[in-house]
C-alpha cells in the first residue's frame, strides 16, 4: 500500500470519465484518504456518489476556483475534517468556446482572462491557500497537454494557457522546494472527457495520436491515474518541476513514421 497514511484533496472530478477520477482510483487503491471538490450544484450530484465510492462521504466540498472565498472556505473545511494533508491534485481547466476553434488571433481579452484565471492562476491560488495544511514531503500535481508545448489545431487558447501552466509548475517547484513541497505536471494524451468535448474536431486528435504514437494506442484515465499516483507518492521523492508525458510516446515524434515506396 504505497499511499497508506497519505491524505489529500482532488479538485476536478466531474464524473467517472474525468482524469481526476482515474487519479483518485489509483490513489485510493494504494490506501490514500481523499477529499473531493465540485464546481457547482449540478456536478455535486455526480461527485458525491464518487466520494462515497472512495469512502470519503464526509469530505466533499464546493470549490469554484474563480471565487477566492470558496478556496479559502475549502482550506477551513479540510483543516477541520482532515488536519494536515500530503497531496493536492489540480485537474481543472476552462476556456470559453470561442477559444477552442477557428482563428486564434480573434480571441477576446475577456476569454483570454477567463482561461488564464481558471486554468493557470487557480493552481497558484489553491497551493498558496492550502500551503499551511501541507505536510513536509508533500506533492502537488496538475494536468497539461502537448498543445502547450507545440501547435495543435483548435487547441488555440488552451494551448497558451497550458504553456503558462507548465512554467507555473516549474516556478512553483523551485519556490516550494525549500518547504519540502514537490510540484509536477502530467501531460496526458487526448482522452474523451467532458472538457475535451469542447475542443474543435477532438475525434481527429484521438485518431491522430493513436496512429502516430510509438505505442499505437490512446491512453486511459487509469494509465494517467497510475502515473499520477507515482508522482503523488514517496516513490517520486526526488522528482519536482517535471512535465511527465503519459501519451503513448506521441511527444517524441518529429515526423509520422510512414513507409515510403522507393520507386
Ligand atoms: P473534466 O471535464 O472531467 O474535468 C475538468 C474539470 O474542471 C471539471 O471537473 C470541472 O468541474 C472543472 N472546472 C472547470 N471550471 C472550474 C472552476 N471554475 N472551478 C473549479 N473547477 C472547475 O475533463 P478532464 O479531461 O479530466 O480535464 C482535467 C484536466 O486534464 C484539465 O486540466 C485538462 O485540460 C487536462 N487534460 C485533459 C486531456 C484530455 O484529452 N481530456 C489531455 C491532457 C490534459
From TrEMBL:
Q: Name one GO molecular function term.
A: enoyl-[acyl-carrier-protein] reductase (NADH) activity
Q: Which SUPFAM superfamilies does the annotation name?
A: NAD(P)-binding Rossmann-fold domains
Q: Where is the active site?
A: 145 (proton acceptor), 155 (proton acceptor)
Q: What is this protein called?
A: Enoyl-[acyl-carrier-protein] reductase [NADH]
Which EC class, in a word? oxidoreductase
Taxonomically, the superkingdom here is Bacteria
**EC number per UniProt:** 1.3.1.9
Q: Which family does this protein fall into?
A: Belongs to the short-chain dehydrogenases/reductases (SDR) family. FabI subfamily.
* Entry-linked InterPro entries: Enoyl-ACP_Rdtase_NADH (IPR014358), NAD(P)-bd_dom_sf (IPR036291), SDR_fam (IPR002347)
Pathway of this protein? Answer: Lipid metabolism; fatty acid biosynthesis
Specify the species.
Arcobacter arenosus
Q: Is Amino-acid biosynthesis tagged as a keyword?
A: no
